[in-house]
TrEMBL record:
UniProt xrefs under Pfam families: Epimerase (PF01370)
Gene Ontology CC, one term: cytoplasm
Name of this chain's protein: NAD-dependent epimerase/dehydratase domain-containing protein
GO molecular function: aldehyde dehydrogenase (NAD+) activity
Domain of life: Bacteria
Domain NAD-dependent epimerase/dehydratase span(s) in chain numbering: 3-214
Source organism (scientific name): Microbacterium ginsengisoli
Classification via InterPro entries: Epimerase_deHydtase, NAD(P)-bd_dom_sf, NAD(P)-dependent_oxidoreduct
Length: 296
């Protein structure tokens, strides 16, 4: 298959692109900068210059592809609403281009916003419309399944971990080094799912190759790790103490990530494993932390 990947130089996108290439697929990557283009070309990926706000470039990538893996997102938490608008328009442009040929589209999504329940693949997204979180892109994409697109959503665990990770867990480690202790909010019993990057990439490939229209997949290897355990592992790896941060002080201590790290997120991947015979084989989050993934 010829597969267009947005976010191909990102943390997840790099692994997905490598997974697709190793399976014999042809990969086209969206590159916003000359440096990104050089990186993709060096990895044997065809380059398409453009960005998420350039809808013509997205349409061009989708027009020449059998499938699109939309993994890019504008991670600007100071302008999160604007990022959602960009995401909404990007997904619409990709879907409408794929529809006449029945192409496949898998969009990256998250797991926040379902407090008090274990999120499953059968749980519909609560986000609808351009003004909602991530521009309602999951429901927007899945809505195109009725219009000929093999549309799917990949919900990624809050921590997609591994050596070289610069995401949420890396930010928690940075804060622990700066503050002199590894913190968790309140009693720390709120949970975060986790998955290793290589396992997540393999799941995306499996979904692109055989997922049915309207499918939601959960990239989750560990259903819900208590936040206090994550803090304890970071504390041990960094050689700093571990302590609770009062909920009222979470924003001041953790900054923008405080609300995410205080959220209780539990998710199951039972249906995903059954549908795709997907069994995670990568290191656990505890193993990656102990191995030094976040000690630098």
């Amino acid at each position: 298959m010829r597969i267009f990947v947005t976010g191909a130089t990102g943390w997840i996108g790099t692994a997905v692109s490598a997974e697709l290439l190793s399976a014999g697929h042809e990969v086209v990557g969206l590159a916003r900068t000359a440096a990104a283009a050089d990186t993709l070309a060096a990895r044997g990926i065809e380059v398409l210059r453009g960005e998420l706000t350039d809808l013509d470039s997205l349409r061009a990538g989708a027009a020449g592809a059998d499938a699109v893996a939309h993994l890019a997102f504008v991670h600007d938490f100071a302008r999160f609403a604007e990022s959602g608008v960009i995401e909404h328009h990007a997904v619409a442009a990709l879907a409408e281009t794929l529809a006449p040929r029945g192409g496949a589209l898998i969009v990256a999504s998250g797991m926040a916003g379902y407090p008090g329940q274990t999120l499953t693949e059968a749980t519909p997204s609560t986000q609808h419309g351009i003004e909602s979180m991530r521009g309602g892109s999951e429901n927007l994409a899945l809505g195109w399944a009725a219009q000929g697109v093999r549309a799917m959503a990949a919900r990624f665990a809050p921590t997609v971990h591994g050596m070289g990770d610069h995401g949420f867990t890396a930010e928690l480690a940075r804060i622990a080094r700066t503050q002199g202790f590894a913190g968790y909010v309140g009693d720390g019993m709120n949970r975060w799912p986790a998955v290793h990057r290589t396992d997540a990439a393999r799941l995306v490939r499996l979904a692109i190759e055989g997922g049915e229209p309207g499918t939601i997949v959960h990239a989750v290897a560990e259903d819900g790790i208590p936040a206090r355990d994550i803090a304890a592992w970071l504390g041990a790896a960094l050689g700093v103490p571990v302590r609770s941060v009062a909920p009222a002080d979470a924003d001041a201590h953790f900054g923008w990530i405080g609300r995410f790290f205080a959220a209780d997120i539990a998710a199951s991947a039972t249906l995903t494993r059954e549908r795709f015979a997907w069994e995670p084989t990568g290191p656990t989050l505890a193993e990656d932390i102990a191995a030094g993934a976040y000690s630098g």
